[in-house]
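Listing S7. Sequence submitted for prediction.
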Amino acid sequence: MNVEITKDIKLGTKLIGSKHPPFIIAEMSGNHNHSLEKALSIIDAAAESGADAIKLQTYTADTLTIKGAYTISDKKSLWFGRELYDLYNEAYTPWEWHEALFKRAKERGILCFSTPFDESSVDFLESLGNPFYKIASFENNYHHLLSKVAKTGKPVIMSTGITTLSELSESVSVLKENACTDLILLKCTSSYPASPESSNLRTIPEMQNRFSCPIGLSDHTMGIGVAVAAVALGAVVVEKHFTLSRAEGGVDSAFSLEPHELKQLVEESKRAWLSIGNVSYEITEEEKKSISFKRSIYISANIKKGEVINHNNIRIIRPGFGIAPKFYEQVLDKTAKADLKAGTPLTWDLIT
């Protein structure tokens, strides 16, 4: 049995919880290709597509790694052969852009926030009035960072990819021990792109029960199907990478949504949320007008007064203005009180 999370969490101006439409985050990542104008256009497109928030990443190559530390050797990786330092140097969002990006988002009526990757980036984001924080899957074991973010007193969204249950429990404890009271966890599979088969969305309600907090999805699969399914299972936040065009390239463009797809995600995830409703076996108000199209017993051949009702002169057909089909055997061998024309609904007052 699922625990009902009644406490709403406020992210900026938006309330997050089961009673509110899913909160859709467009992740810019490095899809700006080091063009400020493109970054601003991504924010414009996210707002026009109906997203609730645009997410930045705040780091530099030097705050993440050092030159020569590692070269990606997985031949299936989108970034095979790339040195981590060079990849991050290509993907990072220049810190001097942040103020302009936050300003554009505000102008377009969309929330802007960021994922910090070290303690200095938290200080920087605090100076910009960052409204809430995201902890990336790859950073959720960085307890110094978790502590720093929690102590800001602002809501925290944390991804749970590449994390065991015990590690996740430790990370949640660190946040709570450092005064984090508003926490949202995101089910996440940290492969790029991720397969639907590896998404394991049934974990969402279990995670909600276990941690007694709202759960969302950080989704790296292609398309929107997995994200919409997650909403049906209770996800209250959906995060997807976003680009103006996959054809233009970019470090994360291959598994990013384009504007028309993000718009579709916003629309379909809201439909999924609306469809959840409550446990109900009642006939809805919308259904009541269709009750008459169920089957009932009708006269199928002209019957004279006093003639016997039998298999040859009645049928169970649509619509439902006659006697219910379950009484078919009971009306057999009854007699007609008057002449009855074919096409007449058979009612109790017409037979003896």
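Caption to Listing S7: primary sequence and predicted structure tokens for the chain studied. The chain has twelve helices and twelve strands. The chain has a mean pLDDT of 95.
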